[in-house]
Every structure is written in structure tokens, then in C-alpha cells.
Amino acid sequence: MTTTTDARTTRRREQTRARLLAAALEVLGEQGLARSSVENVCERAGYTRGAFYSNFATMDDVVAALYADQAGALVERVEQRLAGGLPGTDLDQLVGHVLEVLPLDRQWHAVRTEFTAQALRSTEAAAALTRQRSELRARLAPVLVEALHRIGRRPTVPADDLVRALVTAHEGLVASHLLGEPAGVGPRLLGVALATFTEEVPR
Fold it and tell me: Which SUPFAM superfamilies match (predicted)?
């Protein structure tokens, strides 16, 4: 039986973890993993090293947790944005709606880049990244297929392949955008990708 004290302890732990992750997101976005440290994160969050180590073992664990949290939040935003139906009826409008909720900020890009670099160094991190990317695609696939259905289109490839192509394209486009490429290039190319891998449903 859960007591009031247990519930308060759990809530405080969750709040501590959330503040540490928020601080880590800022620090990583500003400094990158190589220059970031447990001390940096603790100072930014206003906690001691003890609080950090009661939630995470290493900064690599923080990066993995940030990626998991942000990937989950991304899917939830897409689901909520598309759940009520689309006011338009074409691919350009679908791309526009999806791009409204996909992150284009440096912090998220920094976390994704650091986690990918971490996965190249560690088989454990690689397995975690592969699993999380697979889960991300599994959650996005039915949302995207349903959105396509509502505008009278369907994938011409397996849904997982379609989402894989779009996610990969978007990640590359975000990097280009942050490096100064014109903002309009991304939506146009994503629209081309959707048009290439989908078709109109015969009436």
C-alpha cells in the first residue's frame, strides 16, 4: 500500500529528475557533451552531486534519458496535432502541419547528435538508440498513415520504411537549416518524399 510519504518522495524524485534533465538540455545545447559535466548540470539545476547520482550514473545516461523523453514528446505533439483531422486536403498542408510540431531548435539537435555519437562509441548506447528509434517509428507510422488516409492517399512502401525515410530526411534538413540553409527547402523536400512514397487511393 502506497503511503502519503511514499507518494511525496516519488513526486520529489520526479521533480528533481525533471529539473536535472531541463538543466542538462540547456548545458548540452550550449557546450556539447565533451565540455559538459555533472557539476555544470548540478549548478544550473540548483542541486548537489548527490541529487544527480541518485537519478543518473553518468552524463551518457542523461543524454539517453533526454533523447527518450524528447522523442516521446515529439510523437505526442504529432498525435495531438493530427488527431482532430486536417483542414486541408493536400500533401503540402500535411507537411506544414507536421513541421509545426517537429523540433527545429539547437537543443534538441544537440541531444540527438550527442546520443548518436555516444552510440558509435558504445554497443549498449547503440542498442538503446536503435530500440528508441524503432519505437518512435512504430508510434508515428499509424498516425502518418491515418493522416494520409484522410487526404485520400496511402503509402506505396511499408509504413515503417516511409516513416524511416521521413525521419532521416527531417534530421538532415534540421541540421542544414541550423547551419543557415533557407527555411523553405525542408518543407519542399519532405513534400517530395511524401509524394514519392505515397499514392492517391483509387476512387
Answer: Homeodomain-like, Tetracyclin repressor-like, C-terminal domain
